Amino acid sequence: MAPYLCPVALLLLVSPLALPFTPPTPVVQPLPPLRSDAEHSAAALEALSELARVTRAENLVVNAPALLPNPPPSNAPAPAASPSSVRRNALSGLTVSLAMIPEAVGFACVAGVSPIVGLWTTVTMGLTAALTGGRGGIMTGASGAVAVVTAPLVARHGVAYLPATILLAGLIQVGAGLLKMGKWIRLVPHPVMLGFVNGLAIVMTKAQLTHFRSPAGGFLSLSSPAGATMAGLTALSILFMKVIPKVTKSLPPSLLTILLTTLAAKLLKLPARTLADIAGAETFRGGLAMLPKVALPSVPFSLATLKIILPVAATVAVVGLIESLLTLQLLDGIVDDGTRGSTWKECRGQGLGNVASALCGGMGGCALIGQSIMNVEAGGTKRLSGVAMALSLGVGIMAAAPMLSQIPIAALTGIMLLVCQSTFNWSSLRLLGKIPRLDAAVIFLVSYITVVEDLAVATLAGTVLSALSFAWKQSTVVSVLKEGGTYKLSGPIFFASTGTFARLFSPKDLLEEAVTLDFTNARV
């Protein structure tokens, strides 16, 4: 049994949907005493105020600016072509390109392909999605969500089928964009969004903790030179991230942190693990020979091939779009510059990015929430930041590979751990006593499934549970007021409330008198 079925079953057992059903007592009563307009207004305002308080507390998009480790001084949009905006977005893209390297290498290993494949996937997808996506500021590249889906395909059928799968997934995403299917992301409830970011924060933290492991698999000991160096440089980079914004805002704190931590490791001659140690020296040999070859996937174009790649491609398309569209909504709230990203353009941009990646032999990916938050925190809110990230990484692979290879992994780990800490919505823990219990259960469920399974399953499970909860609540609010032979109905009449509706009437009364059903206040 899949691990996420256990909490789903538990939540259904404790939810009202699974409790023994007791038929409600028919609400047949005389009209209550009329209240004054002032009393009605006061009661309505109080109810609306409480609803607004709970809704705002659960709305991650509204509270998104709190996710930034170092919030920018102002959210006022600067002219896109102003020198300060160009400089800020270019430096932000350069900074994020360095943080992309260990992530792309790690995801490539998960998918079972060469590290250089993950790096060029980030370059091609990052550039294409930045130019054609839904909004500026989103960072796109090789992702773990896609890697875990394609890993079984690579293991079973070989690397040759991976580009074909990603090409088909990209075409599906482009089609979803042209059909304007991205708008359906609005149906994802706020508790699912909270669970999404919390689960993703845990997943990203687990990914960073792998850098504290030895090649044998165990955690590095603090008494060993390697363990002490890793812990010390990580703590130093976190300290720099906290102090630098208080000293200067002329450069992104993350960029200065990487430079200063690398300088400290070199001056002190510390045995720090570098990007070259993780990706291999071959990845950073540089030169034009590192450029990927553009070609169609080298697999037979046949029905047999389609049967192999279609299920995986469909899953990749769905997983990628869900994570990308949720990231789009989150950045709309973080940037808060008066504009909203386009969901259909984001679908199109992710699809074209995957198509470009596949033609270059890539592994596919999607929008990355951690790097996107890091980018916005550094001041990158325009499309230029995504373009700068892709170009910086591409040029670095070819022309500055020896320099990049010497960056300590601890410098990037410290920055990403801060991003993980800020990504987790700590306020959701304080909401547990203020929001409905089933909403809290949805947050926990989505977080759990995101960690143990994947985002698509988590979002589906959370949305279904929220929909069932809503249907149950609506099915119990049907009532009737009797005035002689007239029954005035109130509440929604639909498939889930038909049983309650039928029990509101006595068959004996219906046979003894002429009955009029008044549906004025009912919704059918």
Automatic annotation (TrEMBL):
UniProt cross-references to Pfam families, sorted A to Z: Sulfate_transp
Coiled-coil residue spans: none
Annotated ranges, domain SLC26A/SulP transporter: 90-444
Membrane topology field: Multi-pass membrane protein
Transmembrane segments: 104-131, 138-155, 161-179, 191-210, 216-239, 308-331, 352-374, 386-419
Main location as per UniProt: membrane
Compartment list: Membrane
Segment forming the signal sequence: 1-20
UniProt keyword terms in alphabetical order: Membrane, Signal, Transmembrane, Transmembrane helix
InterPro entries noted in UniProt: Membrane-Transporter-like (IPR052706), MFS_trans_sf (IPR036259), SLC26A/SulP_dom (IPR011547)
UniProt-recorded name of the protein: SLC26A/SulP transporter domain-containing protein
